[in-house]
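> run fold LysR family transcriptional regulator
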Amino acid sequence: MELRTLQYFLAIAQEESITKAAENVLHVTQPTLSRQIAELEAELGTTLFMRTNKKTLLTDAGLRFRRHAQEIADMISRMQADFTTDSELQGKISIGTSDFDGFSKIAKSIKDFREKHTAVSFEIFSGNAFDVMEKLDSGVSDFGVLLETAQISRYDYIKLGTAENGGF
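> ok
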């Protein structure tokens, strides 16, 4: 599977049309794009798109594949940004967290950091512990904030503490 094929897939999913994706986004011919998607579906052994008269929609398998394809595309963008930066600190930091009372303190720390390093952006998502650990394991998140009840032994971690002992 090639990165180009993932980009083709994502363009069709976004445009909901093979013809529009081919002409307006990818600048390839519609038959070429259709052939690439047919080869991808054959490689995966599943149908990714449901074609109707008006739209090209994702199947359930296509929805799952889009999530993974988008994660890969985001990781590649971050990697490219890491190698095209100048001396100023810049990039995107991805944080996964489950809801907890102390997040406002983390938000304040992010605000303070952004005032010093304006070229750094943050991407924050909220989910349960499983979602956060899945993003950590796949490299999509740079770090996660988890409650102690999560199975964290496989990660490098710092205990933040409780409000009583000066933590969160």
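The radius of gyration is 20 Å.
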